[in-house]
């Protein structure tokens, strides 16, 4: 599923390879008993400038979603909160809070793995970029390595409920 023309991946990458990097971040969560979601920010020149994985439990911070942490890191690297010429790759469809941060950062595009049927705010529950007061709409595409991303979440919640 894609909104807008599919852009060329950043230099030296494929969308699948970038999702592999986000999955590496997501796997960091399993050691910390956090919901396994990982995100990276990559500049169009191919350099990964931000990484993050879910950490609201370990940090006691409800905003410590993978996307937010990756945006914070990338902003520090760029010394700017505006992240034009960058893409966000994340293993799970972002929530509304993260969509708001993406809008503020002016990320050029978002690639996500699994759809989030409970809180997904790109296409699943609400089209967050289509809200009438929104003044910025980045390109987005879902379903990249969706099976692997979903399986990681399934395995986590299966073990949690055992």
TrEMBL record:
Keywords recorded for this protein, A-Z: Hydrolase, Metal-binding, tRNA processing, Zinc
Classification via InterPro entries: APOBEC/CMP_deaminase_Zn-bd, CMP_dCMP_dom, Cytidine_deaminase-like, tRNA_aden_deaminase
Listed EC numbers: 3.5.4.33
Cofactor note: Binds 1 zinc ion per subunit.
Keyword NAD: no
Domain CMP/dCMP-type deaminase: residue ranges: 13-124
SUPFAM superfamilies reported in the protein's UniProt record: Cytidine deaminase-like (SSF53927)
Annotated catalytic residues: 67 (proton donor)
Zinc as UniProt keyword: yes
Biological-process GO terms, alphabetical: tRNA wobble adenosine to inosine editing
Cofactor or coenzyme needed: Zn(2+)
Catalysed reactions, as listed in the record: adenosine(34) in tRNA + H2O + H(+) = inosine(34) in tRNA + NH4(+)
Residues the entry annotates as binding Zn(2+): 65, 95, 98
Molecular functions (GO terms): tRNA-specific adenosine-34 deaminase activity; zinc ion binding
Transmembrane segments: none
Function field: Catalyzes the deamination of adenosine to inosine at the wobble position 34 of tRNA(Arg2).
Listed HAMAP family: tRNA_aden_deaminase
Subunit description: Homodimer.
Family: Belongs to the cytidine and deoxycytidylate deaminase family. ADAT2 subfamily.
Protein name: tRNA-specific adenosine deaminase
Taxon lineage: Bacteria, Pseudomonadati, Thermodesulfobacteriota, Desulfovibrionia, Desulfovibrionales
């Amino acid at each position: 599923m894609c909104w807008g023309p599919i852009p060329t991946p950043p230099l030296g990458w494929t969308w699948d390879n970038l999702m592999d990097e986000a999955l590496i971040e997501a796997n960091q969560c399993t050691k910390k008993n956090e919901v396994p979601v990982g995100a990276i920010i990559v500049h169009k020149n191919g350099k990964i400038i931000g990484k993050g994985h879910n950490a609201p439990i370990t940090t006691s911070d409800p905003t410590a979603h993978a996307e937010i942490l990756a945006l914070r890191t990338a902003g520090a690297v760029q010394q700017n909160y505006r992240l034009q010429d960058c893409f966000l790759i994340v293993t799970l469809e972002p929530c509304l809070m993260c969509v708001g941060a993406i809008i503020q950062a002016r990320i050029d595009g978002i690639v996500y793995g699994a759809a989030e049927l409970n809180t997904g705010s790109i296409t699943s529950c609400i089209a967050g970029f289509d809200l009438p007061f929104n003044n910025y709409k980045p390109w987005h595409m879902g379903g990249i390595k969706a099976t692997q991303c979903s399986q990681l979440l399934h395995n986590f919640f299966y073990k949690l409920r055992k």
